[in-house]
Specification:
Radius of gyration: 16 Å
Largest sheet: 2 strands, antiparallel
Order of helices and strands: EHHEHHHH
Distance between the termini: 46 Å
Helix content: 40-55%
Low-confidence stretches: none
Amino acid sequence: MSINKIRVAKNKAALVQALVNINEKTSPFQTYVEVMVFAASLGAKRKKKVPLGEISKREPGPIEQEYFATKGYDTLIKLLAIAEIKNVDVLSLNNEEYDDKRTQIFEEYANGGLEILQEELRGAVDYSDRLLLFLSFERSNNEDREVEFDLTRFLS
């Protein structure tokens, strides 16, 4: 059974909503898709995968994967799957099992990233400011580490 939707854990639904609160002008993200992509990237960077458990059925409900594809974020879903499984066969479009596996991997990394964000944003009044501080700290920590090949040094 192919999922074809990205689901959000029920215990993270309020956080996802708060990060996109459309009534606030200072919300850090414009869509749930952006929140999930950011969270999955963070989860992957920190190597934190967390099974979803109970799924949010209300806002935000499961998100159609087509929304990810229209923004080009389906590439991240595929890359995470390849990195996890270490087999390019996971990209097969004709295999429902691989489709489900790609989705599950992305959801678990996103859930792990949301768990990290929950901890980092605890007690924050303005999520945008706290996220900016968090990202600045992450960047400065990465600059301190010696890496073999870092593309960020080419950014102005």
